[in-house]
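Good morning C.,

I know you're traveling, so I'll keep this short. The sequence:
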Amino acid sequence: MIIFIIVVFLSAALMPTDVTSNSSKKATSLRDSMMQYLARHIMPYDVPNIASLGFQSNGQPKPDGMSDGIVDQTVYYSIKAKTLYPWTDSIPQDVYFEYVVPYAVTNEPRTNHRPLLFHALKDSLKQYERAAIGNSTKSTQDHIKEVVKLINTELWALMGRDSKPIVFKASQTPRIYDPLSVIAYGYSSCTGLAIMLVSALRSVGIPARMAGTPAWYGDPSKGDHR
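The tokens, ready to paste straight into the viewer:
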């Protein structure tokens, strides 16, 4: 099993951005900006389901019985991660919007996994919260590297069932490759595990995306890997 994850780093010095604030007015503005970004960059795959995902047009009320959808929850936890984890201060807004805020990684089933992953990882990352880090002398990149390693080490047992960690099982795509299906079944192939890890990193404000190759070492017979 090979899993490729690209955590988005930007040169030696990450750029500070002024997007974290306790101001409710600024939080509302940030939420609106995130929603607008997602609406402008919606995948064609999702357009038929735009209303059920949570995109409301022209302030129209939701149909009776419909919740806010996964978009609202994803944006809410993208902002919550910014208030909790200090590395998010150094991530440029365009990178954060592209590699943290999206509610999906590829064309996997759209599920409300962001709250689940955010809360599941919170205790493990307690030492990296703003109040705990304080005046740490470590760089932002060092903190991000530590957190990525910690999540990749603990995620699979943390989200496993019946005391069994999530494991690799070949040839599961497209049956089992969204995060909630991976958690429910306890296994997936490389695509599902890669999406799971990307989603977990994004849930705590770390920009990440999936990468892969259709031919390992240029040889299609060796298979594709994510």
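Safe travels,
E.
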